[in-house]
Amino acid sequence: MNSAEILVIDDEAQIRKLLEITLQSNDYKVREASTAKDGLIIAANHPPDIILLDIGLPDENGHIVLQKLREWYTKPIIILSVQSSEEDIIKALDNGANDYLVKPFRTGELLARLRSVLRSTTTENESPILICNDLQIDLSARIVKKNNEVLKLTTTEYALLFLFFKNEGKVLTHQYLLKQVWGPGYISQSQYLRVFIAQLRKKIEDEPNRPAHIITESGVGYRFI
After folding, report:
1. Nearest-CA neighbor of 175 among 186, 162, 166?
2. What is the DSSP letter of 100?
3. What domains are there in the chain, each with its CATH number?
4. Helices 190-204 and 174-181 meet at what angle, rounded to 10?
5. Is the distance from CB of 177 to CB of 163 less than 8 angstroms?
6. Where is pLDDT greater, at 121 or 36?
7. Distances from the Cα of 148 to the Cαs of 48, 73, 183, 224, in angstroms?
8. Is the pTM here over 0.85, yes or no?
């Protein structure tokens, strides 16, 4: 049974009702806010385990709300929005959103995303060994294994895979990956990323051309599953 509490910040009453029914039927606890102001107050007074945040709020832009929350709130935030442009998605992810779902969304997909961010949060600091299906990273020894066989990774490939592991299920933008792995001066050098993603897929995927771990989010970045 879930013990996670979710705060829904959305001005659409129908969406809030749909989310309330869906989440409560899956044993999540739900709090609701229809404005940015109320959402920020509830989040501060009763910090939830996850926040579902709409971008188009009546009293303040959701991107600003996201930035305000990220000044202190470290748990997952998933954006739910009718705004589907790459610019909006990338902006939200770069401002600290863990995921972005475009309305109308499938409830099954939302529940899967919730499970993913909760798994990532729960295991974040538990062990020096990170495991994802057939892959394993020993953080203390800096060793990566696939099906218990050691993989030979370059320093850059290891750094990239480690970043994916630590953000399992989250969409990481091209700019974020380039900045974290190569540095701020490389955020426009997308060819670096394409080359190393291809190399990494050859080493960790059973079928590099049909990846099961490093999934491309077209025009935005990559998601590690």
Report:
1. 186
2. E
3. 5-123 (3.40.50.2300), 129-224 (1.10.10.10)
4. 80
5. yes
6. 36
7. 37, 37, 32, 20
8. no
High-pLDDT (> 70) share of the chain, %: 95
Of 72, 89, 71, nearest in space to 80 by CA: 89
Please report which helix (H) or strand (E) contains residue 217, including its range.
Answer: strand 214-217
Q: For residue 118, what are its two tokens?
A: 């909760």
Q: What is the mean pLDDT of residues 98-112?
A: 92
Question: Whole-number mean pLDDT of the chain?
Answer: 89
In this predicted structure, what is the pLDDT of residue 179?
86
Sign of the Cα torsion 117, 122, 128, 130 reads: negative
Say which residues have a Cβ less than 8 Å from residue 83's Cβ, sequence separation at least 6: 55, 56, 102
DSSP 154-201: -HHHHHHHHHHHHTTT-EEEHHHHHHHHT-GGGTT-HHHHHHHHHHHH
Distance separating alpha carbons of residues 143 and 162, to the nearest angstrom: 11
Nearest alpha carbon to residue 86 among 225, 220, 223, 216 = 220
